[in-house]
Amino acid sequence: MNEDILLKEEKDGVILLTLNRPQVMNSLNFALLRALSEAVESIRFDPKVRVVIITGAGEKAFCSGADLKERATLTPDQVKQYIFTIRDLFSRIENLPKAVIAAVNGHAFGGGTELALASDIRIASDNATLGLTETRLAIIPGAGGTQRLPRLVGKGKAKELIFTGRRVGASEALEIGLVNKVCPREKLIDECRAMAAMICETGPIAIEQAKYAINYGLETDLNTGLAIESNAYWVCIPTEDRLEGLAAFREKRRPNYKGK
Q1: What is the pLDDT of residue 2?
Q2: Fewer CB within 10 Å, N or C, the chain?
């Protein structure tokens, strides 16, 4: 019954993961979290995959967050297990050594917005709505929202959105820096694939190290961040890809990077 709960489509170095529970706005139950976790771990060590795109099935929702019907059946200890599972999964997505694009194709509430926040780049359809709405249920964001949102939009705006549980449309999300780009719904996946194709033209090790330097450097003071960047740069120097990039530039051709 759960084998189609997460759809996968791989092409040209890009894997599209589609949360496939449209009848419940692609809400995250334990089964979907486990399926997504297994997919993330298989992608981590797959050299053929350069970019991950995550979206939701149907025309209404990207992901509405936790499956509240399932949540109502859980014991307090099971709720703790759920929160640990989703928080750990989103951290692994954030630290995946590949570029991750969230294709926000509709409503993204609670854990849905947190999934987008854990991605590297967020592209939203013009009908998208995002929000960390947990305080309206007398809880707080539990999958990284209180930490990732202020790092993206600033502390004041993050407090406003979390304290009120207010939802924002695509245009406001773009204005405050919550998403990178907005496009018509029917062009969303094409826009994501176009950006993914540009990323696939770059060096795989360079992307991995740039992501590492940004993610970890942002958590430190400037001097420590510069040291992290320096060490990440040193990783790129002895690679075959760096030499290939120089040769391709000299020979005025497209480079053929192999991640070596």
Answers
A1: 52
A2: N
Residue-level pLDDT at 1: 41
Q: Which amino acid is at 130?
A: L
Pick the CATH number of 6-200 from 3.40.50.150, 1.10.10.10, 3.90.226.10, 3.40.570.10: 3.90.226.10
Tens of pLDDT along 50-72? 999 999 999 899 999 989 899 88
**Ranges of each domain in the chain:** 6-200, 204-251
Instruction: Report the catalytic residues.
Output: 66, 111, 114, 134
